[in-house]
């Protein structure tokens, strides 16, 4: 979660694809692939230019420097293959400072990928595949076609909490609560159909082939995404290998791997530029950035905001630029902020009003004051009937200064909101020494030496758990695949 204010996004229906780990998935079957694309129109260019700055803000900002320049170059090269424009300069490609696996594009030639997704890739062809898939959505005008049908979907990063659906049902208040919670999401986007996802996938493979890249790169990057999803589930203590139903908009990418591989058969082998790619991304920030707060085990620590809290046992957290989600099977919560005028009771009441929306008031039974680890705090609970059962909505706020407050907004089945008491009571300030001790993780590209093994190199990963599993997924190692001397690989280490 960044320190910047939580402005609402105005880019509701423009994004062509968000949450690549979600949207590059599950599209089986066949599709009619257009042979050429209509050029970018003046209207599309104006739309893209208008919303581009807001997208950058939603996703942590645009990175600069050699790594960003490299991503831009590869993206512009592959985008030209679409026929949307014949000049590389017609496309704006941005590397975003975000710790979620994400990529998307909007009309007008604007293409985006996050540094975290780039970190998961293992060669330049995979980078071109991801960006080509997103350009494919734009070339096929998928966003415009879905917008015409008004079929909208909301996600929070790579699976953050959605406070609706399974707990709140489909009643109007439940939908209002869900939408209010998602005002802090990274992006409101359209859901694409399976045929549209497959069409974009096939277009991306075509672009790879015509650009001289290995067309099999689409299947290998999808495989890495599937393996990362499985690893995330394992590390977060979830029994499944996909996002919970209430936090997912698309099936797992594992189902896409074979289809993408079959589409690449019969095409040229092409190049991957593996060593060049790994050399160019060496030193890239990996995972959470201290400026947006970091998740360490069960705790979230923000060195700039000088705070720390801990998720309850059995819950996991997802950090985004706008909020921190705390997810579990019993309930979900978000940590975020709102405008503060110096009165905690008024602050809590205003959050409830925003959650209830315009159509139905949401008022807590009472608002009580307390102190948590020396912090002035206030909280309230509202019980909501969703037609079949009842749920409790809790807002718990903390004052950090006369003009700064933060809060949790949580939801759980009626009478079970106490599951979040450890979370609410864990909030505390941190010292400057604790803040200074937060050091980001970065990629370190090394050359395998004779005698090096997966176990030996994995032991250098800057994690207390899952070192071998993280290393293998990060480097796209499958089955019993081992290392060979002279091979470049990525490890994650603490930066300086």
Which ranges are low-confidence, i.e. pLDDT below 50, for 5 or more consecutive residues? Answer: 5-31, 150-190, 242-252
Supply the number of helical segments: 16
Tell me roughly what share of residues is in helical segments: 25-40%
Mean pLDDT: 81
What global shape is seen? Answer: globular
Largest sheet data: 7 strands, antiparallel
CA-based gyration radius: 23 Å
Task: Kindly state the number of beta strands.
Answer: 19
Distance between the first and last residues' Cα:
22 Å
Measured by DSSP, the beta-strand proportion falls in 15-25%
Strand order of the largest sheet: 10-11-12-16-15-14-13
Estimate nothing, just give the exact number of structural domains: 3
Structural class estimated from helices and strands: alpha+beta
What does this structure look like?
Pfam families: LysM (PF01476), Peptidase_M48 (PF01435). Its cofactor is Zn(2+). Residues 1-30 form the signal peptide. This protein starts with 19 loop residues before the first helix and ends with a strand. It has helices at residues 20-23, 42-58, 66-80, 115-120, 124-139, 142-148, 172-181, 194-211, 217-235, 257-264, 274-281, 344-356, 421-426, 432-436, 454-458, 467-474, and strands spanning 92-96, 103-106, 110-114, 152-155, 187-190, 285-286, 294-296, 299-302, 307-310, 316-319, 324-327, 332-336, 367-372, 375-385, 390-401, 404-413, 428-429, 441-447, 488-494. Strand 2 and strand 3 (110-114) form a beta hairpin. The longest helix has 19 residues, at 217-235. It contains 16 helices and 19 strands. The radius of gyration is 23 Å and the shape is globular. It is an alpha+beta fold. The strands form five sheets. The chain has a seven-stranded antiparallel beta sheet with strand order 10-11-12-16-15-14-13. Strands 7-8-9-17 form a four-stranded antiparallel beta sheet. It has a three-stranded mixed beta sheet with strand order 1-3-2, sandwiched between helices. The chain folds into three domains: 20-151 and 191-286, no CATH class; 290-436, Mog1/PsbP, alpha/beta/alpha sandwich (Protein Transport Mog1p, Chain A); 441-494, LysM domain (Membrane-bound Lytic Murein Transglycosylase D, Chain A, Roll). Helix content is 33%, strand content 21%.
């Amino acid at each position: 979660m960044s320190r910047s204010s939580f402005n609402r996004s105005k880019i509701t229906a423009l994004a062509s694809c968000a949450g690549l780990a979600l949207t590059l998935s599950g599209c089986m079957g066949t599709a009619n692939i257009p042979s050429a694309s209509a050029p970018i129109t003046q209207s599309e260019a104006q739309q893209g230019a208008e919303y581009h700055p807001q997208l950058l803000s939603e996703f942590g900002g645009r990175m600069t420097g050699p790594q960003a320049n490299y991503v831009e170059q590869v993206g512009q090269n592959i985008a030209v293959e679409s026929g949307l424009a014949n000049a590389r300069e017609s496309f704006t490609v941005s590397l975003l400072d975000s710790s979620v696996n994400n990529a998307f594009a909007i009309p007008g030639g604007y293409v985006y990928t996050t540094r975290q997704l780039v970190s998961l890739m293992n060669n330049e062809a995979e980078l071109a595949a991801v960006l080509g898939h997103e350009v494919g959505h734009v070339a096929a005008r998928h966003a415009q076609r879905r917008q015409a049908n008004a079929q909208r979907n909301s996600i929070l990063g790579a699976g953050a909490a959605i406070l609706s659906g399974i707990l709140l049902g489909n009643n109007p208040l439940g939908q209002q609560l869900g939408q209010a919670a998602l005002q802090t999401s990274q992006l409101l986007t359209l859901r694409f159909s399976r045929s549209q996802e497959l069409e974009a996938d096939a277009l991306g493979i075509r672009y790879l082939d015509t650009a001289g890249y290995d067309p099999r790169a689409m299947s290998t990057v999808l495989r890495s995404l599937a393996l990362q999803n499985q690893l995330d589930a394992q590390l977060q203590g979830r029994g499944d290998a996909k996002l919970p139903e209430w936090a997912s908009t698309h099936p797992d990418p594992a189902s896409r791997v074979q289809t993408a591989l079959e589409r690449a058969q019969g095409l040229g082998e092409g190049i991957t530029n593996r060593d060049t790619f790994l050399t160019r991304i060496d030193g890239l920030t990996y995972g959470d950035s201290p400026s947006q707060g970091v998740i360490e085990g069960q705790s979230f620590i923000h060195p700039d905001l000088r705070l720390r809290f801990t998720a309850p046992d059995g819950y996991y957290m997802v950090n985004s630029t706008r909020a921190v989600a705390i997810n579990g099977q019993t309930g979900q919560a978000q940590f975020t902020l709102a405008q503060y005028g110096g009165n905690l009771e008024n602050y809590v009441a205003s959050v409830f009003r925003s959650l209830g929306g315009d159509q139905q008031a949401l008022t807590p039974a009472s608002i009580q004051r307390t102190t948590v680890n020396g912090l002035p705090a206030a909280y309230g609970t509202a019980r909501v009937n969703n037609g079949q059962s009842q749920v409790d909505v809790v807002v718990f706020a903390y004052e950090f200064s006369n003009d700064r407050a933060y809060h949790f907004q949580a939801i759980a089945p009626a009478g079970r909101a106490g599951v979040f008491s450890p979370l609410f009571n864990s909030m505390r300030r941190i010292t400057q020494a604790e803040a200074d001790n937060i050091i980001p993780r970065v990629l370190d590209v090394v050359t395998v030496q004779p005698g090096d093994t997966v176990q030996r190199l994995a032991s250098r990963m800057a994690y207390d758990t899952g070192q071998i599993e993280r290393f293998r997924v990060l480097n796209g190692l499958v089955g019993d695949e081992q290392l060979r001397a002279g091979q470049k690989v990525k490890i994650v280490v603490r930066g300086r």
